[in-house]
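Here is the promised in-class demo. Please do not try to memorize the tokens; focus on the logic of going from shape to residues.
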């Protein structure tokens, strides 16, 4: 059985460094016989959390569902059907991109009670920093915290900076091959 991966990108640039990093991991997965679906969050209609009720919650608190009518539920279903989920984000001010933050803010709410089968799904994070690159480790730590809070099985967090991108592309290919053989 082929390993199925969902790659969620918080970048809008399909030829940028974050996309290149995610592509390297996908290449490694393919070499190991896996397949991947890639989703660019900026091309999907996903709103930010509305904190629906006065207590800041909504149906997400008890039903693990969101009341917002957008593409979020379909993406969560694809995540649930995957063996591996890769979260790749550019780093802005040592933090996740706005599109990745909006997605993960809602994901942690609907995975709170884990009635939908997210718990234990393998996950990998890629945090790609431009500029001086110093924000990549801090972003990776934040992403690790969020994904662990979603009850995902975080297998690796890979901070990347533009200065070490060529090296990390090789690491990401190897990681993809390792994941494809493992899962």
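The designed amino acids, position by position:
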């Amino acid at each position: 059985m082929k390993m199925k991966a969902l790659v969620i990108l918080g970048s809008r640039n399909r030829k940028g460094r974050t996309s290149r990093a995610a592509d390297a991991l996908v290449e490694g997965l393919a070499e190991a016989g896996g397949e991947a679906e890639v989703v660019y969050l900026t091309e999907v209609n996903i709103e930010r959390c509305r904190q629906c009720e006065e207590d800041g919650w909504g149906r997400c608190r008890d039903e693990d569902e969101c009341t917002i009518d957008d593409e979020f539920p379909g993406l969560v279903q694809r995540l649930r059907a995957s063996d591996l989920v890769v979260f790749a984000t550019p780093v802005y001010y040592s933090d996740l991109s706005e599109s990745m933050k909006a997605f993960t803010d809602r994901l942690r709410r609907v995975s709170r009670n884990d009635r939908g089968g997210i718990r234990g799904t393998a996950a990998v994070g890629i945090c790609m920093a431009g500029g001086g690159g110093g924000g990549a480790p801090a972003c990776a730590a934040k992403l690790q915290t969020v994904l662990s809070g979603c009850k995902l099985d975080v297998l690796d967090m890979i901070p990347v900076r533009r200065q070490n991108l060529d090296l990390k592309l090789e690491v990401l290919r190897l990681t993809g091959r390792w994941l494809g053989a493992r899962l």
